[in-house]
Amino acid sequence: MSAVAPGATRRRLVFLAPALVFVALAGAFLWGLRPERDPRILPSALLEKPVPEFDAGPLAGAGVPGLASSDLKSGQVSLVNFFASWCIPCRAEHPLLMDLAAAGTVTIHGINYKNKPQEAQAWLADLGNPYGRIGVDESGRIGIDWGVSGVPETFVIDREGRIRYRHWGPIDGRAMKEIILPLVAELNQ
Amino acid sequence: MRRLAAALLTLALASPAAPALAVEPDEILDDPVLEARARDISAGLRCLVCQNESIDASSAELARDLRILVRERLVAGDSDDEVRDFMVARYGDFVLLKPPVKPETYLLWFGPGVILVLASLGAGLYLRRRRMTAGTAATAAPALNAEERARLERLLADQGEGPARD
Description:
The complex is a heterodimer of chains A (189) and B (166). Chain A has 189 residues and is of the alpha/beta class. Helix content of chain A is 39%, strand content 17%. In chain A, the strands form two sheets. Chain A has a five-stranded mixed β-sheet with strand order 5-4-3-6-7. A two-stranded antiparallel ribbon of chain A has the order 1-2. In chain A, strand 3, helix 2 and strand 4 form a beta-alpha-beta unit. Chain B is elongated, with a radius of gyration of 33 Å. The chains are: A alpha/beta (189), B mainly alpha (166). Chains A and B meet through helix 4 of A and helix 3 and helix 4 of B.
């Protein structure tokens, strides 16, 4: 009478199956809810591809030349930062770009996206200019060619002019330290 | 009759209105055929800002830029597919509201169907097994003999059921 019927163990395991499926699904969903994971951020369609061809005129009064795709293929790692004076997160990340420019680790180029040149120039005069070159994209067409859906967006370009990483939104200290700086160091080797 | 009219009116008002469009008059092309193609393509392109709307329906500035770009490509002579490919080259597959059927999206497209088939098979097997064991249980119950049947009727009469006793 103490022996368990042979089918009972298997039946008990079968009853356990929905609970196991639940645990697996719950685990997967909890993983998806991690705060670092923003589902609105899309992977760039241009990763590993050469930068789109463009030739953008300079920003009047900014004191730096304009930006063209040829400038990004000159054998140096660079960052391309899409920005605008009306963009609040751009203002939030600006000090980090200034620090980076001052440190001289990597050249930062700017593309002024859908901005009135006078307003952009006033904004830079007020906050400082971290950019080696600035291209003006008033119509936003250059942004569309880069797959930009808003500002700020920052691209890491390797020596051959290929896009290696796209950072959506403002760069924070963590992203700078954990993603961008290590990538720049790696591409510089 | 009044209630029926009220019910129908409520139903009509509750039905979804014609899909909203965000196309502004200055965007509309002169050529109606091209404009119709533009509207059609736009309805299938996702607005990257709002992400759940098409660029045809979204009032975001990027949506307007993309609508104008779609029309420019059509006027330049691109086919519908070429316009879509142009957008996908820049924004990736996600810009299409209807995901393309590629190996990466097989799970998305065929997953539900496969799960439905598996679940139906599982349910079918389970039901068949239940029916088989239920059948054996019924034949295993022995019928009542005459004495047991008399006892049963007496018990039921005591509880007020079964044929009344005089």
